[in-house]
């Protein structure tokens, strides 16, 4: 017997059809997107709402890249060693960049994305962070963990005044706060003369507020004891009354701007790295959380996140991509949130989060793994959101199956109390049936959808094929008849022949059965053959096969030549040879690689045929064997010989077949 194996596709189909099914769809809105950028690190992110550009600095490569809101690169400014902090002018005509490797602040033209001016700040000042306030450019400068000693508390604030004929740089504007490294800076959106700063390096917390109305930074408040650890980012609320900072811990801290007393927190994750506040007061709190949510969005006044985002891994690490310090920014005048991430392989991506202000519902759909055809089944699930949805919220249901591959609308189902739903349906087609439940979304919620797949059992298809177990002679024509019972729509049957051995399987006939459900095909037999009738199935009746194996005796013929006459002994005619002549025995079997014939020789002795030795001889590519027999000393004896194909001697593609006996004798 031969072994048959499932193809990979068939094996997968069997695997999936037997799997229990519960499907969930939720998370980011369909319009969210991300794109890889030609960067390796992230220093700062600034959004230009006038030119609709995003500027991102890369300290490692020493460049600033400008993209559109989808991440398409629009321009690059290079030769900016260590460039970190960015600040946009009020008219969005200039972008200022802090370039510590050049001890300079560099002005870029935002329209052309080219360098316009370079302002020296002072040797070894290493400016890193910028803010525009009181008509000046303010910069945080000083040594850090990479370019200075870990214990150095030499960070300070300076200003660059470009209003006169020559640039004026003023350093050391707060020598008492002892910032560890260059402090981060931010300007109040409510007061152009209010500035805040925070330590950005080492394990030390320092937060201070300044009034720069006079052109000099006058400290109005300071807090150096509330926390431990550096500040990765900070931002004012739109009214300027609060500051929000990202410090080590599981929350983002909120400070009263007037005295820097902590007034609350926003829950986030263990390592906060970024904070961005929209014009309406919506807070985006970001964290470097490889295995947890990375961004938490809070509506104004809310202490529970309306939405969270978890960035996937795009590199070789198991955890999700990282959110660097200061890598969150809102779209000015819009609702989109931009996030820039890095991964383990130093690849940078821009993420465009299109609906951060909306709650992202999680829609779960559950259905039985299997179900019978034409019997009611129950589909259930839930729709949960950070902003709960009211009872009666409409959910649309669509069923996909073999009969309706493009979907059949099953109407609208209302959401019940507790955010649950349930409905029954009677599947009308067998096979894989998918139920999709969709919520369209509203002003406060993103759209959501979920699906569940049910394996609906087919009705068993009655299919038979005759002739199984028959044994026939070589070259016999056999007619096979398949009989198909009741089906739904499909009445087509295929009949395939698969001869044993190396001959390929082939289609004998494909057609619609007659009124009695029958289809016949004929085959001239040359080898043992398995014939299969196949019904592909329809939407109600499953695929079916019926097999019939017919054994075929090998073709065989044996002839003797070189005799000089025929002699009749009793009722049998003998070929008669001179004993000096060697008879030539010619055998034919239907050809097959490596095939042999067996010659059986018998002698008449003492009133009966006595067997001599049998011997195997190879056949050539045409199925022929030529053997000679030495007749010396055989005069007066009668012989007979036959050719035999033995199933299994060297191959198994035919059934054992015996040729007729050929009779001969010898004279002197």
Account of the protein in words:
This is Ig-like domain repeat protein. Keywords: Signal. The chain is mostly beta strands. Helix content is 1%, strand content 47%. The strands form 13 sheets. Strands 47, 48, 50, 51, 53, 54 and 55 form a seven-stranded mixed beta sheet that branches. Strands 31-37-36-33-34 form a five-stranded mixed beta sheet, with no helix packed on it. A hairpin with a 5-residue loop joins strand 23 and strand 24. It is elongated.
Write the layout of secondary structure elements.
Layout (H helix, E strand, L loop, with lengths): L7 H10 L4 E4 L7 E5 L7 E4 L4 E6 L4 E5 L5 E5 L8 E3 L5 E6 L4 E6 L4 E7 L6 E7 L2 E6 L14 E6 L6 E3 L13 E4 L6 E5 L8 E5 L6 E6 L9 E4 L5 E5 L4 E6 L5 E6 L4 E6 L5 E5 L7 E4 L8 E3 L18 E3 L6 E6 L5 E6 L8 E5 L3 E2 L5 E8 L9 E7 L7 E7 L5 E6 L5 E9 L8 E9 L6 E3 L5 E2 L4 E8 L7 E8 L6 E7 L5 E7 L4 E7 L8 E9 L3 E6 L3 E5 L2 E7 L5 E6 L6 E10 L2 E11 L5 E5 L9 E8 L11 E2 L3 E6 L1
Parallel strand pairs: 31-37, 39-45, 48-55
Antiparallel strand pairs: 1-30, 2-29, 3-4, 4-5, 5-6, 7-8, 8-9, 9-10, 11-12, 12-13, 13-14, 15-16, 16-17, 17-18, 19-20, 20-21, 21-22, 23-24, 24-25, 25-26, 27-28, 28-29, 30-32, 32-35, 33-34, 33-36, 36-37, 38-40, 40-43, 41-42, 41-44, 44-45, 46-49, 47-48, 49-52, 50-51, 50-53, 53-54, 53-55
């Amino acid at each position: 017997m031969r072994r048959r194996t499932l193809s990979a596709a068939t094996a997968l189909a069997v695997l999936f059809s037997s799997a229990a099914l519960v499907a969930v769809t939720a998370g980011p809105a369909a319009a969210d997107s991300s794109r890889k950028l030609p960067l390796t690190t992230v220093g700062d992110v600034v959004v230009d709402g006038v030119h609709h550009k995003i500027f991102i600095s890369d300290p490692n490569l020493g460049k600033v890249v400008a993209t559109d809101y989808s991440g398409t690169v629009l321009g690059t400014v290079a030769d900016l060693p260590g460039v970190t902090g960015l600040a946009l002018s009020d008219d969005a005509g200039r972008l200022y960049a802090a370039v510590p490797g050049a001890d300079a602040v560099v002005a870029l033209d935002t329209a052309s994305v080219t360098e316009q001016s370079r302002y020296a700040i002072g040797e070894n000042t290493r400016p890193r962070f910028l803010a525009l306030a009181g008509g000046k450019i303010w910069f945080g400068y000083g040594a850090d963990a990479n370019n200075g000693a870990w214990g150095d508390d030499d960070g300070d604030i300076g200003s660059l005044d470009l209003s006169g004929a020559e640039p004026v740089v003023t350093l050391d504007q707060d020598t008492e706060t002892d910032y560890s490294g260059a402090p981060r800076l931010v300007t109040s959106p409510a007061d152009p003369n209010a500035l805040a700063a925070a330590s950005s390096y080492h394990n030390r917390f320092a937060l201070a507020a300044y009034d720069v109305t006079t052109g000099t930074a006058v400290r109005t408040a300071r807090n150096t004891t509330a926390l431990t650890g550096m500040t990765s980012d900070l931002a004012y609320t739109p009214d300027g009354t609060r500051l929000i900072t990202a410090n080590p811990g599981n929350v983002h801290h909120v400070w009263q701007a007037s005295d820097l007393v902590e007034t609350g927190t926003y829950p986030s994750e263990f390592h906060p790295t970024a904070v961005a506040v929209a014009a309406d007061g919506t807070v985006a709190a970001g964290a470097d959380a490889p295995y947890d949510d990375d961004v938490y969005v809070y509506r104004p006044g809310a202490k529970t996140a309306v939405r969270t985002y978890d960035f996937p891994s795009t590199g070789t690490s198991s955890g999700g991509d990282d959110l660097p310090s200061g890598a969150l920014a809102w779209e000015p005048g819009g609702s989109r949130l931009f996030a820039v991430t890095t991964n383990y392989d130093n690849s940078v991506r821009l993420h465009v989060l299109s609906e951060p202000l909306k709650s992202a519902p999680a829609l779960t759909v559950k259905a039985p793994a299997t179900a019978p055809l034409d019997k009611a089944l129950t589909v259930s699930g839930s729709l949960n959101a950070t902003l709960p949805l009211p009872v009666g919220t409409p959910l649309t249901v669509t069923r996909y199956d073999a009969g309706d591959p493009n979907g059949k609308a099953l109407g609208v189902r209302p959401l019940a109390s507790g955010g649950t739903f349930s409905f029954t349906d009677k599947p009308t087609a067998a096979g894989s049936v998918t139920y999709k439940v969709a919520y369209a979304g509203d002003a406060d919620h993103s759209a959501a959808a979920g699906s569940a797949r049910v394996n609906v059992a087919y009705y068993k298809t009655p299919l038979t094929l005759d002739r199984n177990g028959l044994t026939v002679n070589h070259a016999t024509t056999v007619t096979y008849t398949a009989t198909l019972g009741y089906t739904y729509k499909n009445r087509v049957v295929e009949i395939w022949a698969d001869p044993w051995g190396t001959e390929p399987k082939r289609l004998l006939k494909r057609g619609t059965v007659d009124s009695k459900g029958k289809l016949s095909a004929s085959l001239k037999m040359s080898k043992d053959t398995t014939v299969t009738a196949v019904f592909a199935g329809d939407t109600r009746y499953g695929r079916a096969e019926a097999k019939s194996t017919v054994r075929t005796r090998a073709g065989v013929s044996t002839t003797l030549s070189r005799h000089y006459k025929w002699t009749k002994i009793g009722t049998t005619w003998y070929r008669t040879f001179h004993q000096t002549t060697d008879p030539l025995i010619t055998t034919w079997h239907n050809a097959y690689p490596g095939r042999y014939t067996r010659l059986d020789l018998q002698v008449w002795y003492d009133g009966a045929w006595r067997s001599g030795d049998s011997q195997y001889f190879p056949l050539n590519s045409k199925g022929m064997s030529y053997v000679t027999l030495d007749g010396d000393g055989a005069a007066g004896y009668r012989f007979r010989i036959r050719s035999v194909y033995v199933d299994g001697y060297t191959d198994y593609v035919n059934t054992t077949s015996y040729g007729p006996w050929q009779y001969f004798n010898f004279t002197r």
